[in-house]
Design goal:
The protein is built from three helices and 16 strands. With 303 residues, it is mostly beta strands. Strands 10-16-15-12-13 form a five-stranded mixed beta sheet, with no helix packed on it. Strands 3-4-5-6 form a four-stranded mixed beta sheet. The longest helix has 12 residues. The protein is globular. It starts with 68 loop residues before the first strand and ends with a strand.
């Protein structure tokens, strides 16, 4: 019987694997919202090379931060005088135009019910605002000049001037219509930069900056604004939904009797439930003590 040769082939291959350090072009550690290092058990921040996939196979996406907003003034009129309101706009380098855009949208429903009006025609748009050396040049559409009488135009201009000069970088306003600089707007000369002082006569004796019309307030409520009144004395009272006086106080403005000063006073009140109410800011007549130069601010009174 023939024996068959048995061949045994043994092959052994070894692969050596080495581990090196990251290259200088790596992303580096992911930023965190805390000062200390992340715990090893913490999931990597999204947007990094090591971000873990979600169970659906999708990489998580970061939740965008809410846009930052800032408060601005928008000026309207009531009873032939200027009236300041508060608006919020996204934080932007074009804050002047953003404030004007809010003004051009007109009073809110609550403000309109309280008598606020805009003297600027509907449909007016801001084509641009440029600021140089403290002077803002505002370019408005031609409708800004429409249907204007010489007596009505100054208050219309004043709304723009007061809205733009709320910013410390703006001391005066020049006007352009449809891209062309103008020296007369609706019959009103505007050759030189228009300032707040030029339209100071359109300010009421008392302005109320806070609270705003339609605001919900809680006790105690702070009432503030400016005033040019006899002996700088500003009186405040709060009326409930039935018109009954539930609180009263007074304060002194920083200037008065021929000069305008700021005032601020905190006044407590008590109501059994949330209800409509009115904050009344006024001057007591030097002649007979009756309320004059009254500003009525409809609000919601919360306990």
């Amino acid at each position: 019987m023939k024996r068959l040769p048995i061949m045994m082939i043994v092959g052994v291959s070894l692969l050596a694997v080495g581990c090196g350090t990251p290259s200088s072009g790596s992303l580096g550690p992911a930023p965190t919202t805390t000062a200390g290092a992340s715990s090893p058990a913490s999931p990597p921040a999204s947007g990094t090379a090591s971000a873990a996939a979600s169970p659906t196979g999708q990489r998580p996406t970061a939740t965008p931060a809410p846009a930052r907003e800032i408060g601005v003034q928008a000026w309207f009129s009531r009873n032939g005088k200027l009236f300041v309101t508060k608006r919020t706009v996204p934080a932007t380098t074009g804050i002047g135009q953003a404030a004007l855009d809010r003004m051009l949208t007109g009073p809110s429903a609550a403000e309109y019910a309280a008598g606020l009006r805009s003297r600027i025609p509907a449909g007016t748009t801001v084509r641009g605002v440029r600021i140089s050396a403290g002077i803002a040049t505002v370019d408005l559409s031609s409708s800004f000049e429409s249907a204007a009488s010489p007596s009505a135009m100054p208050l219309r201009i004043a709304q723009v001037v007061y809205t733009l000069t709320q910013f410390p970088t703006v001391t005066g306003v020049r006007f352009a219509i449809n891209g062309q600089g103008v020296t007369v707007v609706g019959g009103v000369p505007v050759q030189s930069p228009q300032t707040r002082a030029m339209y100071g006569g359109y300010l009421p004796a008392i302005t109320v900056r806070s609270p705003g019309i339609g605001a919900q307030v809680t006790s105690p409520v702070t009432v503030s604004g400016t005033a040019d009144v006899f002996e700088a004395t500003v009186s405040v009272r709060i009326l409930d939904s039935a018109g009954h006086e539930i609180a009263r106080t007074f304060t002194t403005a920083s200037c008065g009797t021929g000069c305008r000063g700021g005032y601020s006073v905190t006044i407590p009140y008590s109501v059994p439930r949330t209800q409509p109410g009115t904050i009344e800011v006024f001057e007591s007549s030097a002649k007979d003590g009756r309320p004059i130069n009254v500003q009525l601010i409809p609000v919601t009174l919360a306990p």
